[in-house]
Every structure is written in C-alpha cells, then in structure tokens.
## 1
Amino acid sequence: MAIFQVNSAVNLDIIAKESIEDLDDPDLFISKPASLKRKLNPEAESKTSSQSANNIRLAKRRAEEMAVLGPNSGHPSEEVLNKEPIRTALVSEELPIAEGGWVASDCSYVGAKKKHSLEELQSKKDFTRVPWKGKDTVCAIDAENRVVLVAVGKPDDPTYSCDAENMTNLMLEIGANTDWTKDELNSRRGKFASATCGWSHGNGQPHPMRLGGERQELMEAFVSNKCVERVAAHQSDSFARYFPKAHEEYRGRNEQLKERIPEFDGNIKGSVFNGCTANFGPNTWTYIHRDTRNAPGACAITAGGNFDSTKGGQLIVWDLRLIFDFPAGSTILLPSALFRHSNIPVRDGEQRVSFTQYTAGGIHRWLEYGGRTKEAFEIEDPEGYSKMLEEREGRWRKALEVFSTYDELKASGVVGSTTGTR
Ligand SMILES: [Fe+2]
C-alpha cells in the first residue's frame, strides 16, 4: 500500500515580539504557549525497538514513497492522493489553544507579510506541494490519525460550477464598485477588500449578536443570492461529511442558541456556520495568520477567480508543511484558528477572491457558561465557575475529540477510494 508521508522536523524558535517587522522568516514566531515543537509521528518513533527491523521498514517505506513520488518529484501523485491521506507529523496537542479550548491563542508572526514563492518554499523550506486539481477529495491527518484538513472535491454537477462562478463574478463586481476605506483595503490578513456578516460574541457584549457596521446591508444582500447560498451549503455539507462530530456540536449549539436567543436565525440559509467573510480581491492573498477567534472545529474556504492554480493562489499550511494548489471553485476545510496559513499571490493580470465560513468560539463559550459571560458566570454561580476552571486543563483534549480519525471516516465509507471521496 502506498503511503505518502510528510516528515517535517520544523524548528520553530521563539523570538521577541519587538522584532516582528524587522525579520522576514515566518518560521520564527511568537506564541503564548511557548512550545510548538514537532515530534516524529508515533509510527516513526516506534523505530527504536529493533534497529534492523527499523532499517528494513524505513527502506520499504522509502521505496514506497519513491514509487509514488518518483525521484525528487517533491509531491505525491494524484492517483495516490485520491486513495490515501497525507500523513503529517503534526502533534495537535501542542497547537496553541486558549481559554480552555474555546478559541486559539493569539499569535504574531515574524515576516507574516512576506510574499513566498513555490520554488522558495519547496527548495529552501522543505515544503511539500499537493498538486490538487479540485476534483477528488484529499485529506491530511495528524500524528494520531486525526483528519485535520480536507480539500473537498467539487460536486460533480455543472450547475454547481456555474453557481461558484456566479458568486465569483458577483464578488469581483462588488469589490470593484464599492468605495472601500483605506483600512478596509489593508487588514491584518492582507491588502484586499473584505467584509463579514453573521453572529459573533465578544468585546464586552452581554450575549451573541448579529454583527453591525456599515457593510452589513451589502453583505446581507450578497449572502442572500442563490449562488452564494449554494456555495455556503456545499461548505456546510462538506463540514458535516468530513468533520461529522464537529458539525454535530455546531448544530447542537445552534439549537441551544435559538432557545436562549429567539431572534437567532443563523447566517446563511442551509449552513451550520454562523459567520462568513468575503474577500473581494481582486488579488486576494493572505499574510500568515490564524483566525484565532473562530471555534477550533473547522472553517471552510472556497476560492474563485481567473488564475492558473499551479502558478499562484496556493494555500500554504505552515503547521503541516504543505502547499495546496487551490483551483477556483474548490473548497478546503481546516481549523483556521489553529493552523498558520497564507497564500501565494496569483500572477499579474489574474484575479482571485475567496469566501469563508466559520463560527465564533465565543458563542460556544457563552453557551457553555450557561448563556452568560464569564464575569456573570463567576458572580452568579461561583461553585460551577470553580468547577469549570478545574476542568479547563482537560478541555483541549476534549476539543480534539471533535476531529474524526481517518479510520473512522473510512469505516463510514466517506473516504478511502476514488469514488467514495466525491
Ligand atoms: Fe484565514
């Protein structure tokens, strides 16, 4: 059986925050949990028992890899990607989580704004490129076999492609015809116009609320288009398919929210996610970032535009050491709160937009606190609050349980064959 494995022993040094803007190596970063050391995955670690058995196994694996990859090809073949997960050495337990597993820790990255090229990342930083064509579904798994990223095959339906294209054209039109402010064109994620809509909680709000602001009318009109609803529903359905436990949790939380806040009506028809962002481009490429306020389940990104996906627009997932070709109309699901990610810019004269959906971790936290803020919880129920604090340590482990293992998805027939992954 051919297995593709990413062995990425990455040295992530901790450096002083003051020097963020001065350096240009994004492998140097600041993270509140001080350690994000990589370990070899357990399969590799178990080598110590017998050196000769170890050598045989390594030689066999290398031969398998070579058979798949070809000498120095640097990436797996499409045929293998359709049938096998991409195995990474990620130790998810060491990802930067805060607030007992409700949201990710805030992080700043050195050189986050630097443009990176495929060549540089592959040759100098040992990244592996995944030549995904957006047709079949490809999963990446962590060291414990958890499915942590899914590049979702596009629905085999020309009307879906048509809707995705319509959404893209609409976004480009909105992007070009809106009088964006300077700040809107230069956010911490990149230099492109973007706007959000949906439900959120934080910043001293007593309860989750629908986002306000002067772009709400525009965004609510945008997301009510049938083409946007279709893409949003595909993102949500894919989330249900490949992250079934996380989807169930999000769905249940929505029911709880509806009970506590009767005016809660979700965000986009047919979607379990409560928030969305439209990145209008016209050349959307993000700096290295984490979406730290999102719940650490999974978020969905759909790319659109007119670009050669083998030359630009790729999604770089720094914590997995992977670069995904990301064709227009296709969708990738990943825990964007936890993984550092960015894009390679598309080429001059090309256009790229992206549409994302997620749920704010603060909403789930508010519900878990009994439909109140942390401050109200502490005052109104000191005993329950203390218990929550005691259980906080183990909460991240519990949060990781929402990720399915590859074997679980395979057993349910969701992955594992070319036909079963669509
Ligand atoms: Fe993001």
Note: The chain has two domains: 4-113, 150-370+399-411.
## 2
Amino acid sequence: MLMDEEILWDNRYSLGINIVDTQHKQLFTLVGKLYALDNTKNTKEEFKIILNELSEYMKNHFKDEEEYMQFIKYPALEEHKQFHQDLIDKLAETIKSSSKLSILKIKIRIIAKRVLIEHIVNEDIKIKLFEISKINNSLIFDSADDKDEEYSFDITNIKPDV
Ligand SMILES: [Fe+2]
C-alpha cells in the first residue's frame, strides 16, 4: 500500500461480529478524515483534535473487543490485549511529540495502517477463525463416541489467508 493511498473499508475485513465490525468501519472513517486533511489548510492543532478523537475511539473499541474475546474465552486474549496497549501507547507518544506537522502526518499514517490494516487483518481475524474452529470442534465432538475429550485450540497454528 502506498503512503497516499486511501484506506477504505472492505467487506473482507468483516469478522461477522456486529459490534466489532461497526467499530472497525468507524475507525476507517476516522483515519479517512486524517488522510483528507490538507497540509496547507490545517494546523497542527486541528490535526491533533482528529487524532484525539481517533485515539479515544480506538481505546473504547479495544475495550469492547477485549470484552468480547473474554466472553468467548479467546485463548490468546492477553497477547491480543498487549497488541492493543502497544498501539495506544504508540499513538499517544506520537501525538505528544512536537514534530513538525508534515512529519506527524507521516507518522500517524504509519500507525493508522498498523491499527487498521495489519491489526485487523492479521490479529482480529484470528478471533473469527477461533469461533469457526469452536463450531467445527463441537460438530466433531457431538458425533464422537468419547465426549469427554477436552476441547483444545492452538492459536499458533492459525495462518490468516490474506
Ligand atoms: Fe484487536
């Protein structure tokens, strides 16, 4: 993806989890707003207002997503929470930095790509894959003779097809 390329929502990013998908779409919209800002017309302060909006929305979204993962007993919850915290820290650190506006915009675009594309496509998609594997396992166990077999799921074997 090129730096100036617009980041747009695509249905292939959908996890099939309404609240999460709706929030992911809103994150794309907020990042779109950042991309739409013109260097010559917007001051650093205006840019920071949108950044703070993105930052707040991102935190609330991560909280909801973590609650959902907890609800479905997602096995890599702690690791996923750490990814969220790293993104929050990185964004906060960048917002606080006193870089020139042009530099700040470039840095933010890099983070936005990490939040929206890499995180959603590489990490959030594993939540969906986990749910699919749970359904498949329950179908297998339902038809198996030995129903005492313990359900297991190895997150390290998941390779998102993207
Ligand atoms: Fe996430």
Note: Confidence is low (pLDDT under 50) at residues 145-153.
